[in-house]
Amino acid sequence: MKKTLIFLFSTTTFLISCNRGNDTATSPKYQSLTEAVYASGNIYPENEYKLTANADGFLVRQTAFEGDLVTKNQLIFQLESVSQDARLEASGNILRQAEANYGENSPVLAELNTQLRNARTKLANDSVNFSRQKELYDRSATTKVEYERAELAFQTSKNDVTARQKALQRTKSQLYVDLQNSQSNFRVNAREGDNFRIKTFEAGKIYEIYKKQGELVRRGEQIALIGDANEIYAQLAIDESDFVKVKIGQEVLVKIDVYKDKIFKAKVSKLYPKLNKADQTFRVDAEFADEKPNAYYGMTVEANIIISQNERVLTIPKNYLVGNDSVWVEENGDKKKVRIAKGVENLDLVEVKGGLTEKSVLVREN
């Protein structure tokens, strides 16, 4: 017998294939009975994220719109950044000057090197003069005053060369520090400038844009909603009383309003343990198994999560139940009340696990 999917607006439902009897007397029948949990929810794309602004500014440029496919790191929005552009330009000028001051053709270092060379030349001359004066003084061929004057000039030149060497090294070190600081400042301003250029994190489809060109955008405001255009899932809500029955990997039959009577197959992929106190439901995600619906964001769905499938169980019409677990049966022309052991049930049928057989005759209570 062909099984038919039935979506019932109740908390726990069961999928069956049978016809309900209309006689006042009937007998239990063996037939297939499938237990399922009803769920409702929506379709969402995988890897969903929202682009947010990292700076204040007016939206002056937009390169993509709703429904467009975008790539990773694609520039989507540009915010006005006059003051930031000025800071970036200023830091760039300072960096170029620092690079010139520390480079091979540095005018600052060239001047200090020239001064050092001149000092070394003077030291060489003063050294020769001192040596000559010392030789003359040792032979008593010159006065002590001349000898001491030559010695003082030599020591002064030595000290001047040492001082200029230290000044050159100190200037080099300072210029290197200035260059590093300028590079860091430029990188900071460049990164700050990136805050005015809003790019995608991952490839996907733009589902919604919250700001229009020309509008003021504040830091932290959301600008666009983006998600994977190829991978989607069903986000379902299940009543808390049914949540313990649901397990990862269970089959899910999904009905989507826009597809009318078409049924999509999915599997439970994730269970969320936190109860939504607003409607007393738990969240369950289901991934589509084979054919997938189009990736329209937020489409409403109804689903049956298959809990168990019983191909052949003894069933009775539910409207023959008396109370919760009894039925009236006819035996030898007399009616008597019999207690039964129930299994799964739906709006129409109840599984009988004990108390009746196929030959039992059920009657309604008068």
From TrEMBL:
Ranges annotated as spanning the membrane: none
Domain YknX-like beta-barrel: 236-304
Molecular functions (GO terms): efflux transmembrane transporter activity
Any one Gene Ontology cellular component term annotated for this protein: efflux pump complex
InterPro entries: Beta-barrel_YknX
Protein name: HlyD family efflux transporter periplasmic adaptor subunit
Biological source species: Emticicia agri
Organism classification: Bacteria, Pseudomonadati, Bacteroidota, Cytophagia, Cytophagales
